[in-house]
Automatic annotation (TrEMBL):
Domain of life assignment: Bacteria
Residues spanning the membrane: 6-24
Compartment(s) where it occurs, according to its Swiss-Prot or TrEMBL record: Membrane
Gene3D superfamilies linked: LemA-like domain
Main location (coarse class): membrane
Keywords, alphabetical: Membrane, Transmembrane, Transmembrane helix
Protein name from the UniProt record: LemA family protein
Amino acid sequence: MTTWIVGAVVVVLVLVAVTLVGAYNRLVRLDQKAQEAWSGITVQLERRYDLIPNLVNTVKGYATHEREVLERVTAARANALDARDQGVEHAAKAEHQFQTALKSLFAVSESYPQLRANESFRKLHDELVDTEDRISASRRFYNGVVRDFNTRRTTFPTNVFANAWRFGQNREFFDVAESRATQISEPRAVEF
C-alpha cells in the first residue's frame, strides 16, 4: 500500500514538474517571439525613416516656402528615431506625431502639380506606401504575439509562477493611430 502511495506522489510530482517546465518554456518562446516581432517593426520603421530625407529634399525643391512643414517632418523623424529604444509606448507616441507630420507633407504636395509629376517623388511615394503596408503587417503580427504572451502570462496556472520567473508584466501593444497606406494621398496624374 505504501509503495502505491509513494508511486502516486511521484507521478503527481512529475506531472507538476512537466506542467511547470511546459508553462515556463511557452512563456520564453512567446517572449522571444515578441522580441523578434518588435525587431521586425523597427526594421520597417527604419526603412521608412531612411526614405524621409530624400522625400523632404524632393519636396523642398518644389515647395521652398513650405519650410515649416519640412522642418516638422524632419523633427518628427528625429524624435521617432530616438523613441524606438525607449519602449513601445514612447515609440507609439512618436510614431503618431511622425505620421501627422508626414500627412501634412503630402497635403502640401497636393498644391504642387510639378512635384506630383516628378518621377523621384512618385517613386519615393510608392516606396513609402509599400513600407506603410509592411509596418501595418508587422504591427499586427507583433500585437498578436503580445496578446498571446499576455494571455498565457495571466492565465492559471502560469500566472501563479510568472512573477517568480521574471515574466511579471504584460507587454505593451504597439497601438498607433492607423496610418494605412491608403491615407497617404496618391499622387494624381498631371494634365499638360
